[in-house]
Amino acid sequence: MIRRLKILTVVAMLTVMAADVNAQMQISPAIDSLINLAYNAPDSVAARYYNDVCWKLRNSSPESAIQFGNKAIEIAKKTGDNEQLVKGYSYIGVCHRNLGNYSDALEFYELGVENARKFGVKDQEAYGYVNLGNLYIYQDNIPEAERNLKNALEIGKQLNDSAIMAYGYLNLGRTRLADRDFDRSEENFLKALDIRTECKRLNSQCNVVRKYLADCHAEAGLTDLAQKEYQACLDDLDIIGDYDLLSDISLKMAQINYGKKKYADAMKYAQNGLDYAKRVGSKYATMQAYHMIADILYLQNRYKDAADNYRDQIYCNDSIFSDQLAQKLFNIQFSADQYKKQSEIERLALEQKALEQETARQRNFNIALAIAIGAVVLVLVLVSVNNKKVKRLNSQLKEQKDELAERNARIEDQQQLLLKQQKQIADSISYAQRIQSVLLPTDKEFASVFEDSFIYYKPRNVVSGDYFWQMDCEGFQVIVVADCTGHGVPGAFMSMLGICALHGIVGHGEHDAGEILNQLRNIIKTLLRQTSADDSNPKDGMDIAILVVDRNQKYLEYSGGNIPLIYIRDGELNEIKPSRNPIGVYRNEVPFTSTRLDLKPGDRIYLSSDGYSSQFREGDKAKIKMSGYKNILMKIHKLPMAEQSKRLDEELLAWQGSIGQVDDICVAGFLV
């Protein structure tokens, strides 16, 4: 009777699980059949069926797939099926990676590799290395990714396993693509494609390789070839239900059509990409889709709809980091509690030592008294009394030691949890830095336009509220340095908001400096819901300076809000004052205007946020100030621009001494 009740309980739980899966997606007949097999199979084979369901749902419904993977792990532990146990950890890690939960993915991947080594499951150990390599690619840690993938390939060759080698070459191709080594990237992708083409059981996985080949061609500038390859993947029935792959391809097709100014087609693919990303639950892909849709709407003059999608993009990005920031606050409180507990442990240790000393003194006294009296009977009485006291004290001491050991064990568990949480926060902030860095131009990109130039960019924390931005607009070079309210993660949110808006404005063809700032201010006020300058509205915004440079006509246009233009001509420092208006709501708001400056060979142009001039000095805590910053520029302006950047850093470090950096810093300069 009890056995029947247990069976009914399990069946009820699985029915609820199946209902949850059906609520999230349309179950194909093949998967539905596999789920039924899992429900009705004995434990000896049920773990394999549950893992098969988890794997087939990983790209279309990863949240539901995790439930089946956990069931497989539970049964595998009970039956001692080590192979299915390892697969369960690996499959759940893939599901978390598809959801963008990289810390959870790393935890399950490492569990998979650890158990594969422990139980000698070599093929799953190799797949574990592939999974780790794949995850490190997402985190832009290419050396660590290559190390794990080479381990996987070595095992794949030992086992002569085509599937493992195909995965290894595919992901090595991705590492080369990340470094823009297109030839070696294509070489590895073709090796993976050859293996999967020759092995019939791997034929259905060829589309993933073709998708990455298309990525390689797109990155190399072969957009027509890439578009043809992407479309061929979309037309293949093998990827139906693979929402992760469909979302990626759709967004790549949207980007290509956007670049060709086929905005209707770009919108169609972007909407498809958003739908697939939401189905699979991928936060990063959803954020990319909102950004593409917002850019298209902006070009169609649908500013409110564009602003809504830019806001959705920011909210989506916010959801990636909010949990980790709350967890960081918890860790601070936890550290304080741990300190109190450690103090309590030290107090108990002192009491224990005092108790031991008292016991020793009592024993010596009893021995001396027994010798002095010399009466055997009295000695026996005293020994008996003393033994009782010792036993009682030993019992108390044992209880205290047991309690101390238990507390030490709890503290050790809490320390491990703290280390894990700190690592998750560091991983999240590192990922935030990667997202922000993708949006910022590099020194090489700036130097490709102005050969003798530099960008001195130094966030106070890992991510920054200061940013430098550059874009070509119909032959004009648009250059921006901005300082957002706040720093760290809040400042980074504002910087991404500004970059996205500038991308839309300049991408639409606007190249009048003052008008760009006027449009940017309107978008920021709309996104932040700033309707008036009273105290009920947030005062968030940014100080900014913008240059529109015509290198052919040898002039530039400048407009700025609280950030001046400084240029040195013939050994004399000159300054064009900014408007006293920020980008954002302001009580005395006036339109931004453009100032023209005709350029001469040898002119040195500088834009800077106030972070450099605001740095305190060790000793008297004096600031560098704008006057000190200008003096430094006059000392170093004859040096090559790259050397000027180094000298700026040396001067800053010498000034601040042991005082920490107080604000984000961004300085850009170039030689005409």
Strand arrangement, major sheet: 1-10-9-6-7
Helix coverage percent of residues? Answer: 55-70%
In total, the number of strands is 10
Beta-strand percentage?
Answer: 5-15%
The CATH architecture term of the domain at 440-671 is 4-Layer Sandwich
Structural class: alpha+beta
Largest sheet: 5 strands, antiparallel
Average pLDDT, all residues:
84
Radius of gyration: 33 Å
The CATH class name of the domain at 440-671 reads Alpha Beta
Shape: globular
Subunit arrangement of the protein: single chain
Q: Treating each run of at least 4 consecutive H or I residues as one helix, how many helices?
A: 22
CATH superfamily caption of the domain at 440-671: PPM-type phosphatase domain
Uncertain runs with pLDDT below 50, 5 residues or more? 1-26, 321-339
CATH topology of the domain at 440-671, anyone?
Answer: Phosphatase 2c, domain 1
Question: What is the end-to-end distance?
Answer: 90 Å
Question: What would the keywords be for this entry?
Answer:
five-stranded antiparallel sheet, alpha+beta, Phosphatase 2c, domain 1, 672 residues, globular, 10% strand
